[in-house]
Design goal:
This protein is mostly helical and about 130 residues long. Helix content is about 75%, strand content about 0%. The longest helix has about 30 residues.
């Protein structure tokens, strides 16, 4: 047995032919948005707490939320909420054993991505 020649084998999945799937991307994005929403919740709670204290505390929190960083956090939070909501609906559909075909799963993935961007734009427009 030790006399048999060893042939180098490719890594699995082979890195030169592997193409990331949309379902993997949407799954990773769901985890990222879930964690990011936790962080943005802390920022919003800080702002609400500063509002109850008033004075310099509120002015600092309000100033931060009106900087480009604060506004980016708020806009991305709105997008994260919509994406996470739509991905949750998608998973409810999957849990009912519907939409598990590759073509349907890809359509639902694109629906989550495009729908969350459109709903974010609509929300920002209405606010």
């Amino acid at each position: 047995m030790s006399d048999t020649p060893r042939h180098p084998r490719p890594l699995s999945p082979h890195l030169q032919i592997y193409r990331p799937q949309l379902t993997a991307f949407t799954s990773i994005l769901t985890r990222i948005t879930g964690n990011a929403l936790g962080i943005s919740t802390i920022v919003i709670v800080w702002w609400l707490y500063a509002m109850t204290r008033g004075g310099a505390d509120y002015e600092l929190a309000n100033w931060f939320l009106h900087t480009w960083v604060g506004e980016a956090i708020l806009i991305l939070s709105v997008w994260g909420l919509w994406y996470h909501y739509l991905a949750g609906i998608r998973h409810l559909i999957f849990d009912s054993l519907h939409g598990l075909e590759i073509a349907t799963a890809q359509k639902l993935g694109w629906a989550c991505i495009i729908g969350s961007v459109l709903l974010t734009g609509l929300t920002i427009y209405l606010i």
